[in-house]
Design goal:
By secondary structure, this protein is α+β, with helices and mostly antiparallel strands. It is built from four helices and five strands, in the order βαββαβααβ. It is 26% helix and 16% strand.
Amino acid sequence: MTVAPGCLVTVCRDCCCGSTRKHPAVDHDAQLRRLRAALPAPHRVRVSACLDLCAQSNLVVVHPAPPARRAGARPVWFGLVLHDSVVDDITDWVRAGGPGVAPLPVALELSVVTPMLPTGG
């Protein structure tokens, strides 16, 4: 039996994201545990160093599953992920298929942010 590939979820945890100095009311470790518990295989949750969008911390990026990526789906960036309800909305969407598979819930549209693009020179 073949298991369909899942989404990759990148959680920023560096200078601002995951910082109790910046967000003292958020249990950042619990947030990461919540994501990992809600998204077992075939999904993957990884931690990243700074994703350079500190004004929008905490950042979570949902990368489409490989078949959706090949069909043109792109990662979706979420900012200000500071409440369990947003984490729950993200995990529900990922379990439904995520980018390119499941429509983005209206509630999550409010959390979508645009990543900084590197400038060429």
